Amino acid sequence: MDVEVDTEGRVTSATALPPIMLVPPIKRSPQPARLSPFAERAITEMRSRTYRPFERNGEATPATFQDYVFFLPPERVPSVHRPFPEIHDWNTLRIGLNRGTCFGSCPAYGLEIRGDGTVKYKGEAYVAVTGEHQGSISRKDLETLLDLFRRADFFSLDSKYSRDNISDGQTTRMSLAFDGYNISVVDYHGAQAGMPESAEQLIGAIDLYGGANKWVRGDENTVAALNRENFDFHSQEAGAVLAVAAREGDLKAVQDLVAAGSPLGVRMTRFLGNPGPPLRSAVENNDIQVLEFLIKAGASNNDLAAKTAALDLAVQIERKEAIALLRRYVSGTNN
């Protein structure tokens, strides 16, 4: 969809775009592509949306951009209903979530929430914090999460919801075990295969109540969680955590990590989720305040190559505000 919004983020125009023929048939002229049969419904949906206002130089401004409307098949209702049993021994409770790798930059990690409130995390790739770490969940939140499993009729769901004709996605497995029961559900583009929305929402709920965000992306709880483990904030690993938080655009996490001593100019090769130096990473998110903060803090201040690489990326992805900031930083006239 081509979309136009006003200064309050209200949609003023929405136009459905025809499919793009990337490689036309050999020796044939490309034929005019027809609009999707869902185009009118997509326009109606788009016009009902309100976006967070776009800003330029701190003031709200009209904007033109592209967005998507997705149409999914009907939910696949469970063919057999299996009652959700009551828990007798909470110490046997295990709620699991495992997100695998994909052909892109999908965060890969595992999360296990136990009946005693312990949360076990293991970060593998494309996450802020790798390795094994531990957190906790309150009994009230644990009961709320378990009730979401009950509302989703988890024991009645299919064992797998998959689009098998797609080969580059992420496989997510959620599981629930207690009192000898052990049920798991695999989500591989599950919504496109009729996975019920209540089941799809469970994945986000496990992340939310398990506090995964502080390890996966970095947030206001990251430093406190790592402090409890006597994490070395002056290490190269801490620089990688800062870089991911900068890439994800969480200003509070970035500020906390810098205050804790995370290195601002660590030189890192970009692989397996390692985003490179924090300065370059900050260019990739849409919050210019993160980049401004890192520049003021002196990120890569004595590394011209790192500053130039950040500027090159800003030019490549056309981030005008970042370009202006980095040009001054590279030239030494940013004060």
- End-to-end Cα distance, whole Å, is 41 Å
Q: From the coordinates shown, what is the CATH architecture of the largest domain?
A: 2-Layer Sandwich
- Biggest sheet descriptor: 7 strands, mixed
The H-and-E topology, N to C, reads as: EEHEEEEEEEHEEEHHHHHHHHH
- The structure class reads alpha+beta
Average pLDDT over all residues = 90
- Taken as a percent bin, the fraction of beta residues is 15-25%
Which fold name fills CATH's third level, the topology of the largest domain? Mago nashi protein
The poorly predicted ranges are none
Question: Can you tell me about this structure?
Answer:
By secondary structure, the protein is an alpha+beta fold. It has three domains: 2-66, no CATH class; 90-213, Mago nashi protein; 222-331, Serine Threonine Protein Phosphatase 5, Tetratricopeptide repeat. Helices cover 33% and strands 19% of the residues. The protein has a seven-stranded mixed sheet with strand order 9-8-7-6-11-12-10, covered by helices on one side. Strand 1 and strand 2 form a beta hairpin. The longest helix has 14 residues, at 197-210. The model has no long low-confidence stretch (mean pLDDT 90).
